[in-house]
Amino acid sequence: MSAPVGATTVLPRPRIILPPAWELFPVTDDNAATARTAFSGAWESGPRYSIGPFVHELERALAAVLDDARGAGGFAAALPMGIPWQVPVSTAVVLSHVPADDPQLPPGGEQVQTDAGPARRSIHDIAPPTGGDAESVVLLRTIDYVWRVPGHDAHLVAFASISGLAVPEYAPVTEALTLLVTTMLDALTWPDSEGER
C-alpha cells in the first residue's frame, strides 16, 4: 500500500457515466465561481432585468449544494442540470476520499460487485418529521457506496441523497431515482493510467 492520504498524495478520481443533462462539478473553495460559469449561458434566455433574479437564484442554489459537498469532504458532485422535474423530487451524488488503514471494506450494508470492484452499498429510507409541513422538501432516501482505492490507503465514498415532498404519489419517482443512481455507481470505474487522474 502507498502512504496514507495526505497533502502530497494524489488519489485517482473515478470515471462516472452521467445521464443526459447531468453535470459533474468540481468542489472547490470558490463554488460561487463554478456556479456562475455553469449558468453563464442562461443570460441569453431573456432580458437581463427579467432573467437576472432567476439566474442569480440558480447560481445561489448550485453554490450552496457544492458548499455542502465541500463541508462533507467531497471533491466532486454530480447532479441533474436539465429541465426541472415536473415533480418536486430530485437527487445529487457527492464523491469523496477518506483515509483507511484497514484493507477491508467497512462493515454495514451489502457487498456488491461493481465495475470498479467490490463495494459496500447502503440504502436508507428517512422517515419524514412528524407534524411537518406536507409542502416542505425533506430528505427521503440516502444511498452510499464505499470502495477501496486501488494501491492507496483510502476509500472512495459516493453519497447520494434523494429529497422531495414526502407524499405517496411521488414514491415511484424516488424508486426511479434510486435505480438511476445505483446504475450510475455500479458502472463507476477507475482511470486506466496516471494521465487520467
Strand fraction: 25-35%
Q: What is the 3D shape? A: globular
What distance separates the N and C termini?
18 Å
Average pLDDT confidence is: 87
Order of helices and strands: EHHEEEEEEH
Count of DSSP strands: 7
Radius of gyration: 18 Å
Order of strands, widest sheet? 1-2-3-7-6-5-4
Helix segment count? Answer: 3
Low-confidence stretches: 1-7
The main β sheet shows up as: 7 strands, antiparallel
Helix content: 10-25%
Molecular structure report:
24% of the residues lie in helices and 31% in strands. The chain has 197 residues and is α+β, with helices and mostly antiparallel strands. A seven-stranded antiparallel β-sheet has the order 1-2-3-7-6-5-4, with helices on both faces. A hairpin with a 2-residue loop joins β4 (110-114) and β5. α1 packs across α2. The radius of gyration is 18 Å and the shape is globular. It starts with 21 loop residues before the first strand and ends in an 11-residue tail after the last helix. Mean pLDDT is 87; it is low at 1-7.
